[in-house]
User: Fold this.
Amino acid sequence: VQLQASGGGSVQPGGSLRLSCEASGRTSSSNGAVGWIRQAPGKERESVAAINWSGGRLFYTDSVKGRFTISRNNGRNTVYLQMENLKPEDTGVYYCAARENRIVVLMTPENWTYWGQGTQVTVSS
Assistant:
């Protein structure tokens, strides 16, 4: 599985961004999942949101609930992360990651198998 993340940038607090993660290889036809993991400067990686390639459950870490929305387009093998009301503490490098098995909880970073390159998100006034 290869993953290509895009959509990062710089916004002011309260702004919005949409990240995209396009997957290729053994992807949406598999019984797997895709997640977004971020790493803030000087901090460890943190799983932010995740979605299975099938089914309706969505998974979020508490700090982004109500502000971030993860979604997928199976036909395009793409997973999106719509980020609203961004805060300075959302700043970091955002990675998309995938695994070949479904998830029932938001998996911690070490449980993702395939990783894309990161995309920088900066929230600053």
Summary: The chain has a mean pLDDT of 94.
